[in-house]
Amino acid sequence: MTFVILLLLRNYTGIMCKSLESQSKKMTPEWQGKIKILSSSTLVIFLSSVLLYVQNAPFMYYFYFLIPIVLWTMVLYELDVYYEAKAYLRRFEVKMWFLALAVLAVLGLELLVITFFYRGVMSLGLVFIGLWPFTTQLSKRMSVAWLAGCLALGVFPLLPVIGKQHNYTLVTLTGWISIIIFAYCARRSELGLVRNSRQISKEPQRAIVITVLQIILVWVAITIVKSTADSIEHKEGLPLFNQILSWLLLVLSPVLCLFSTTSLFNRLLNLTLSLLVPFLLMCIFYESLFFLTLCLVMFLWICIEHQLSGSTLRLQDMTFEYQSSSTQTKNVTYHIKIDDVRKAYFFMFFMLVAFYGTGNIASLNSFSISSFYCFMTVFRPFTMAAILLIKVLIPLLIVSCAFRALLQSIRVSNTALFLLVFIMSDFTALHFFFLIKDSGSWLDIGMSISHYLLSMGMFIFTAVFHGLAWFLTTFSLDFSGHEFKRHLL
């Protein structure tokens, strides 16, 4: 974590903008100190390697011993960054402001830690997040919509985790609500499908065909869920036609979004519909309504951040391949702001909401087989585990795609924000490291280890999901030439 903070201070803040006079005065002693650090670390690495060789230690032990030495050498090599940060705080008299910000950040991260143990705490966090826009210059209408969305999303962590209970009527009702909402969105002029109020050209005919087809597939999915539930209730088993169609939708539906254009609104609409279809096939209770609410909150988040950024380019005029070169140039000199810390925290919080919104680790271990009735009724643990993993990952992917669209719309550095996410996840992991239990019941020991591993892997998971979101939002398949178009940002 110390090394990541170093990278953040050196590359994405204005702290290192020193005067030429101060640089020239410190040049000689600075380089002498760095030479001493390099020589000392080289000696330590050599002695450690000799000690490991004499003891016939396994090859992996060399990595365990040497990697921390290398990292701390890199930290000490750039120790002047921390001195400059300290001088910066003293020069601009922002110690109290920085201390208040640090306390607020720690409290927010502690809230994330508590959510691992008590899902209901996320509802309290969503209330604070919902009230946040009222402290900004955001319009009252958008602030009220954001608060309503966060309050609606905060209801789900207070509900019992998804277990043996089921309510297919609620799943069907959510499907019809989704059809109405997405059909209304498709007719909006901002998407350029039926009408066009954008500065860019109207969507091609294939985009309209793909959107209509996806809405029809949502209807097909809820029909399969209702038909399968009725058939199993009457002891008639899983219809073969429903089973084949469910597997086809699971495989083909996520691919359909790649045939749409890369305009921001249109691709997000198609991507959400592509993931909604297989998710509905796995729903048995209120998780379908949770997914729809999460999608609406993510859309509001994109709109709010775009308005607060002061960008003159409208969201409906943006595409995911927009600013391929200028963004990279700007990222080199990008300086993080306080709002960037908030964006990174919101991303982490919503990732936890997507994971813990309808269940927890214990509920994953005691899942109900009814979640797989559209695919199978015979117990097949490996296949069921794969389907369950897909069900858990789909809400996380929605949050990652929304975050990807947010970064694209407000033109911030991806690397800087992910360094902030890494620092936050490392802080929570350090907290869970001290909470690991080696005594008591096996359940308590296993749960403490699971929390630590989950927090440790959070940054890796978010990086993987961001890469997958980049693929799903940027790549496009063209009907006309059957070519695979790749848009590099």
UniProtKB/TrEMBL annotation:
Transmembrane segments: 37-54, 61-79, 99-132, 144-162, 168-186, 207-224, 244-261, 268-285, 344-362, 382-403, 415-436, 456-477
Major place of residence: endoplasmic reticulum
Gene Ontology CC: one annotated term: endoplasmic reticulum membrane
GO biological process annotation, one example: GPI anchor biosynthetic process
Signal peptide: 1-17
UniProt key word Membrane: yes
EC number: 2.-.-.-
Membrane topology recorded in Swiss-Prot or TrEMBL: Multi-pass membrane protein
Pfam families: PigN
Compartments, record wording: Endoplasmic reticulum membrane
Keywords associated with the record: Endoplasmic reticulum, GPI-anchor biosynthesis, Membrane, Signal, Transferase, Transmembrane, Transmembrane helix
Keyword Transferase in annotation: yes
Pathway involvement of the protein, from the record: Glycolipid biosynthesis; glycosylphosphatidylinositol-anchor biosynthesis
Top-level EC class: transferase
Gene Ontology MF terms: mannose-ethanolamine phosphotransferase activity
Ranges where the GPI ethanolamine phosphate transferase 1 C-terminal domain occurs: 15-441
Entry-linked PANTHER family: GPI ETHANOLAMINE PHOSPHATE TRANSFERASE 1 (PTHR12250:SF0), PHOSPHATIDYLINOSITOL GLYCAN, CLASS N (PTHR12250)
Function: Ethanolamine phosphate transferase involved in glycosylphosphatidylinositol-anchor biosynthesis. Transfers ethanolamine phosphate to the first alpha-1,4-linked mannose of the glycosylphosphatidylinositol precursor of GPI-anchor.
Family: Belongs to the PIGG/PIGN/PIGO family. PIGN subfamily.
UniProt-recorded name of the protein: GPI ethanolamine phosphate transferase 1
Organism, scientific name: Ixodes scapularis
Lineage of the species this protein comes from: Eukaryota, Metazoa, Ecdysozoa, Arthropoda, Chelicerata
